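Hi V.,

Quick status before I head out on leave. The structure for the redesign project is tokenized and pasted below; the design run finished overnight.
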């Protein structure tokens, strides 16, 4: 793993999560300097089956194994709860309480502790007890439909990472409030993070208005999306910007449509998209990216993960050090 910062030095975090959302949240806190202790069930976190991913999510934590379904395990958990500034769990509603780590248990052990629950649908509501994984939360929230037709596979676990990120943000906000009111006067906080809620907040706002039909996101923006070149794919990010559209048309020699404004482009969206796609299909990815970047157009090569982590930009910024990912936010 890469280096850490010291913004949360001295903060003690207890991680009761398995799989990805809660461990990702606490890994972010660890990278900010927090001291994280992770409690795993007998046999360890199931994520250990994916060894490199497990290390990425838990590489800065002290790990202890406790059977919280036993009296002995719950008793051993008590001093850890008492010592923690923050307790993070990622179970379905009610499970943490059965394991002796619900909000009331944490408050009894340490009235000043922050308790953060990360779940698929939150601690209440009609879907609260519904099981799910990342792809399910994307489907419930409208995110998966909003990504179609660009992709029909889940790829990056958006819900897991979004939920973990919002949890870390909320925890930092609670810690900031504790600092403002004073530790001695602070009386804890309960944080309820729903991964589906986070995704709804992303997918909910309508993008494009009358220019974008609801059933085909992006279809009326002919130069926004993923396009195949002769030797790979690129993404174009042209929405309403007429200068970008003109630059694209010059690069692709599409002189007959170069003067179309955004309204005209939206009116002929699918047909224009096909025209752009046909022009790109005969050109090399590197040629197109270089030409459009030189003209200030939003374009990117569709890189694989291996290509991305080896890219000079991310190496120069220290996002990747010796092949390992570091905390993605810089402090100065």
């Amino acid at each position: 793993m890469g280096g850490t910062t010291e913004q949360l030095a001295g903060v003690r975090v207890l991680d009761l999560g398995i799989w990805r959302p809660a461990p990702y949240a606490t890994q972010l806190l660890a990278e900010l300097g927090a001291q994280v202790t992770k409690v795993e069930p007998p046999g360890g976190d199931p994520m250990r089956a994916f060894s490199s991913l497990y290390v990425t999510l838990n590489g800065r934590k002290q790990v202890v194994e406790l059977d919280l379904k036993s009296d002995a395990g719950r008793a051993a958990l008590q001093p850890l709860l008492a010592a923690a500034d923050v307790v993070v769990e990622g179970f379905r509603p009610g499970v943490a309480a059965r394991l002796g780590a619900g909000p009331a248990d944490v408050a009894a052990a340490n009235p000043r502790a922050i308790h953060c629950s990360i779940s698929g649908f939150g601690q209440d509501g009609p879907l609260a007890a519904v099981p799910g994984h990342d792809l399910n939360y994307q489907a419930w929230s409208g995110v998966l439909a909003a990504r179609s037709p660009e992709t029909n596979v889940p790829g990056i676990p958006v819900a897991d990472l979004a939920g973990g990120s919002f949890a870390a943000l909320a925890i930092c906000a609670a810690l900031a409030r504790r600092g403002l009111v004073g530790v001695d006067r602070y009386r804890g906080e309960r944080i309820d993070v729903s991964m589906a809620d986070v995704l709804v907040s992303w997918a909910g706002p309508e993008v494009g208005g009358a220019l974008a039909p609801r059933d085909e996101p992006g279809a009326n923006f002919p130069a926004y999306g993923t396009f195949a070149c002769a030797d790979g794919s690129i993404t174009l990010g042209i929405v309403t910007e007429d200068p970008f559209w003109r630059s694209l048309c010059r690069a692709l020699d599409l002189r007959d449509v170069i003067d179309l404004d955004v309204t005209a482009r939206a009116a002929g969206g699918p047909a224009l998209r096909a025209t752009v796609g046909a022009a790109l299909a005969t050109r090399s990815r590197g040629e197109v990216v270089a030409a459009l970047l030189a003209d200030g157009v939003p374009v990117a090569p569709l890189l694989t993960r291996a290509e991305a982590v080896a890219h000079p930009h991310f190496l120069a910024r220290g996002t990747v050090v010796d092949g390992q990912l570091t905390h993605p936010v810089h402090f100065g």
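Above is the designed sequence. The chain has a mean pLDDT of 89.

G. will cover questions while I'm gone.

Best,
W.
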